[in-house]
Every structure is written in C-alpha cells, then in structure tokens.
Amino acid sequence: MEQTLQAHIQLPADLDVKYALLPGDPARVERVKLLLDDPVDLAFNREYKSVLGTYQGMKVLVISSGIGGPSTAIAIEELTRIGIEGIIRIGSCGSLHPAVHLGDVIIATAAVRDDGASKAYVDSAYPAVADLDLLIYLRSIAETERIPHRLGIVRSHDSFYTAREEQLTAYWSGNGIIGSDMETATLFVVGALRGLKTASLLNVVVGPDEGMEEGVRQFVSGEAATKQGEQNQIKLALSAFHAWHQAKGGE
Ligand SMILES: O=P(O)(O)O[C@H]1O[C@H](CO)[C@@H](O)[C@H]1O
Ligand SMILES: O=c1cc[nH]c(=O)[nH]1
C-alpha cells in the first residue's frame, strides 16, 4: 500500500530514522550531504528540502526549515509524526557579544521567546531550553575537537528590517544574550511540548559590530570564517547525535 506523505515535508512514516539536522537554508542541506555516507535525496517541497544518509553507521535525516517560527513549527510537528526523536538546528545567527566572532559556533542553552510561533502554542512563561543531554555531548565534543564555541542564551526574533532592530540588539546584548536567530525558540518550545530532544548550533555570520544585512550578504557570498563555522557546526551536530546513539546502545 502507498504510504501517506506528511503534508508539507512530503516524507513517509517508514524512513526508520530518529535524528534530524535542521538548517534554515535549503542550500545548506546540500553541504551537509557531502559529509554523509550513502546520501539519498528525498523531497523538496516549498522550503523543506530533505536528504537521508548515514554517519558512522547511524541513520540521519537533514531537512531545511525555511526562515522563521511558523515553518519551523510545521517541520517539527511533521518530523515527530514520522518518528524523529531528536532535532539539532544548524543555523546562522548574529553575535550580540563582543567576544563572539564570525565563524564561532554558539551552543544555545536557552532562547528569548521573541518569536510568534511558540506563543501560539503555550504561555510565554514556559521556558525555551535545550535538552541537557545533548548540551553535555555538544560541549564535550566542541572542547575535544577544539571548535571555537560559546554556550549561552540566544534571542529568536520575527523581524529583520524594522526601524527598531539596532535598539533591540543593544537591549538584549545589554542583558547578556549572546546571539540572535529566528528559529531556536520555536524549536525548543515546540520540541519540548512534543517530547523531543532538541539543541541549536548557530554559526555566527554577523559580527558584534556589524549590520545584520551586510553580515548575511557576506555569508551567502562564501566568507571564509563563516564557511568554516558551518563545517564545524555540522560535524559537531553529527558527532553529538552519534554520542547519544551510542549511549542508547546503537538503538
Ligand atoms: O541560516 P538560517 O539557518 O536560515 O538562520 C538564520 O538566517 C535567516 C535570516 O537570514 C534566519 O532563518 C536566521 O535564523
Ligand atoms: O541578528 C541576526 C543576524 C543574522 N540572522 C538573524 O536571524 N539574526
């Protein structure tokens, strides 16, 4: 009998895969693909491009979320329905901290919920936090592999071009927030509500004293430090999933 596909991600429920990497950009899926064994293209519907492969014998799915909370929440819901148990976002972000530089990987411990999607699910008093087991694996691997990184709280936002962006960045930076992206808060909240383990690794593509627009433009054109940061975040995410997989006895 033909398998019913999830409405948006267009994937069936019999892939038998538990771990998903979630970049925002569909183009990043292609770059993850180069690091996997036996990659197979699955689907590309709207912003959701997916590839299935293996990493050190462990099956892993890569699927893009598109930009922002709503499309991310849809991806999380449909991934849960096909049996995914852990999601690590491999995103890009801006630095809000003077010592967090281009190409550093932020390991988000929690996120300020300035997104709209997570509020559609649950009261804002509910925290947006990463899974502790994944955080422990990620920190240990980043240290061992000497990947430039920093753990801390990020802010997820819904706007990019309002007149208040600089003011908002200064406010949150002044309150100890180290980076900003657009999906981490949604991932942490919706993932927790659905019983998933989630983490978010953010490659810094906008430096602490740089404008958002210019940083993102440089990243897209292949700036060297941010290219390396992307490789680092992908390898870190794959290694953390592998460590978790091994801890479960390879099941
Ligand atoms: O590079 P990705 O993963 O899309 O992440 C960041 O880039 C986009 C904005 O340029 C937003 O999605 C933001 O969170
Ligand atoms: O502040 C920033 C910079 C890059 N990307 C984002 O989503 N936010």
Q: What does this entry look like structurally?
A:
The protein has 251 residues and is an alpha/beta fold. It has one domain: Nucleoside phosphorylase domain (Rossmann fold). 37% of the residues lie in helices and 27% in strands. The chain contains 8 helices and 9 strands. The chain has helices at residues 26-33, 69-81, 117-121, 132-144, 165-174, 184-193, 212-220, 224-247, and strands at 19-22, 37-45, 48-55, 58-63, 86-95, 105-114, 149-157, 179-181, 197-206. Strands 5-8-7-6-9 form a 5-stranded mixed beta barrel, surrounded by 5 helices. Helix 5 (165-174) links the parallel strand 7 (149-157) and strand 8. Helix 2 runs parallel beside helix 6 (184-193) and helix 4 crosses helix 8 (224-247). The chain is globular and about 50 Å long. The two termini are 27 Å apart. Uracil binds next to strand 5, strand 8 and helix 7. Residues 92-94, 180-182, 206, 212, 216 line the site of uracil (URA). Residues 18-204 form the Nucleoside phosphorylase domain. Keywords: Glycosyltransferase, Transferase.
